[in-house]
């Protein structure tokens, strides 16, 4: 277990029902021109107008609508808009894709170049960007806590992160009430993403005592509350526990990193347009079974923490959780074929794969892909 680590979280985290009402007072007084980035859902529910009304003394330019797995050109639009309007702060209100796109824009608006330059490491991030506030409307990705942004280059089929310590949000406001309007399928996918992240954080080669404690706490919250949030979307108690579980998960994996599920989910998601939470869920059980010989003790600890006897019980209960949520168990409906395997093998060797507790050869990955095709 790693006991030499750095913890890097937002300067201020506000958590709790109704905390979004504190946004205005938490913004820097000199932040007069705000670029507000949201998803279409936030616009359709009236949340965008509510936020603009909260900021009467600020000049707010709103950009509503970010694609899932945000492509580089959409981030460039935000950067150009921020530069043209001389924005001095960026606020993101939405799911992980919205936050990642806005996080990148906040970092790059005051710099030279566009997103592609930093995505492909042609330019280096050397200093902090604009003040950035992240307000999630889903409970899953934990993007409001982390120093990275996951983006895609559709022309090359590449999905990867831009990351730097200065990209950690200055302010995170996690208000569980904002998740009440999430449809069940989004609740399921985002919740299983958080569940997967917590498990991978717990068994990561880079895990430390703090990250393991956080991950175990998050697993417990998510396992016991995700079915309720899925079946009863208006259950405020379950939504609060899910929001907190997602936040704690991000605190864990921000230190520990992830594993093979995320290493494989990125190329599969970018190639076949699979929602990230769905990709993680489909891969989770096969990877748990693969990791079992190296993780039996750790999986047993997880099992006992959520009320079961051993490692096998933990995996079985994870399968039952997925069944309750009606999640597909293969990529068949997404069109995964043998002809895609070479691309996946070429693009899966990320840091996440390196931190997986049991090494995977290409032949091991291929067998799992064959099972899931």
What's a concise summary of this model?
The protein is α/β, with parallel strands linked by helices and 373 residues long. It is built from 15 helices and 8 strands.
Describe the fold and architecture.
The protein has 373 residues and is α/β, with parallel strands linked by helices. The chain folds into 2 domains: 12-178, Rossmann fold (3-Layer(aba) Sandwich); 182-372, Dehydroquinate synthase-like, alpha domain (Up-down Bundle), CATH 1.20.1090. It is 51% helix and 12% strand. The chain has helices spanning 23-26, 40-44, 47-54, 72-84, 96-108, 115-119, 184-203, 209-231, 236-256, 260-272, 276-305, 311-325, 341-347, 351-354, 362-372; strands at residues 12-15, 33-38, 59-64, 89-94, 131-136, 148-153, 158-163, 171-174. Strands 1-8-5-4-2-3 form a 6-stranded parallel sheet. Strands 6-7 form a two-stranded antiparallel sheet. A hairpin with a 4-residue loop joins strand 6 (148-153) and strand 7. Helix 7 packs across helix 11 (276-305). The mean pLDDT is 95.
Q: What would the principal axes of the Cα set say about the shape?
A: globular
What characterizes the major β-sheet? 6 strands, parallel
Number of helices: 15
Strand content: 5-15%
β-strand number: 8
Instruction: Provide the domain count.
Output: 2
Runs in which pLDDT lies below 50 for 5 or more consecutive residues are none
Radius of gyration: 20 Å
Distance between the termini: 35 Å
The helicity comes to 40-55%
Strand order of the largest sheet: 1-8-5-4-2-3
CATH H-tier superfamily of the largest domain: Dehydroquinate synthase-like - alpha domain
CATH structural architecture of the largest domain? Up-down Bundle
CATH topology of the largest domain, which one?
Answer: Dehydroquinate synthase-like, alpha domain
CATH class of the largest domain: Mainly Alpha
Global structural class = alpha/beta
Q: How would you state the average pLDDT, rounded?
A: 95
Q: How would you spell out the order of helices and strands?
A: EHEHHEHEHHEEEEHHHHHHHHH
């Amino acid at each position: 277990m790693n006991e030499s680590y750095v913890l890097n979280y937002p300067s201020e985290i506000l958590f709790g029902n109704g905390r979004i009402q504190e946004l205005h007072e938490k913004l820097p007084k000199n932040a007069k021109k705000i670029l507000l980035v949201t998803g279409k859902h936030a616009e359709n529910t009236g949340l965008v107008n509510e936020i603009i009304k909260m900021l009467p003394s600020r000049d707010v330019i709103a950009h509503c609508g970010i694609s899932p797995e945000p492509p580089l050109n959409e981030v460039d639009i935000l950067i150009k808009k921020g530069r043209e309007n001389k924005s001095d702060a960026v606020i993101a209100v939405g799911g992980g894709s919205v936050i990642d796109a806005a996080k990148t824009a906040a970092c790059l608006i005051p710099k030279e170049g566009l997103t592609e330059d930093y995505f492909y490491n042609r330019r280096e991030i050397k200093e902090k960007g604009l003040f950035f506030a992240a307000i999630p409307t889903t409970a899953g990705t934990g993007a409001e806590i982390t120093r990275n942004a996951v983006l895609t280059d559709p022309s090359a089929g590449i999905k990867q992160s831009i990351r730097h310590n200065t990209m950690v949000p200055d302010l995170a406001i996690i208000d569980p009430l904002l998740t009440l309007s999430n449809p069940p399928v989004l609740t399921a996918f985002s919740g299983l993403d958080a569940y997967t992240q917590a498990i991978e954080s717990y068994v990561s080669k880079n895990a430390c005592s703090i990250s393991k404690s956080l991950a175990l706490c998050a697993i417990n919250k998510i396992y016991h509350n995700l079915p309720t949030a899925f079946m009863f979307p208006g259950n405020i108690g379950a939504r609060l526990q899910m929001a907190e579980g997602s936040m704690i998960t991000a605190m864990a994996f921000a230190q520990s990193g992830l594993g093979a599920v995320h290493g494989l989910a990125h190329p599969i998601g970018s190639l076949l347009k699979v929602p990230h939470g769905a990709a993680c869920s489909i891969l989770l059980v096969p990877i748990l079974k693969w990791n079992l010989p190296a993780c039996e003790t750790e999986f047993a600890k997880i099992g006992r923490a959520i009320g079961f006897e051993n490692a096998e019980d933990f995996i079985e209960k994870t399968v039952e959780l997925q069944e309750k949520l009606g999640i597909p168990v293969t990529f068949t409906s997404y069109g995964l074929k043998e002809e895609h395997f070479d691309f996946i093998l070429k693009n899966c060797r990320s840091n996440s794969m390196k931190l997986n507790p049991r090494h995977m050869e290409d032949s091991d990955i291929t067998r799992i892909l064959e099972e899931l095709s």
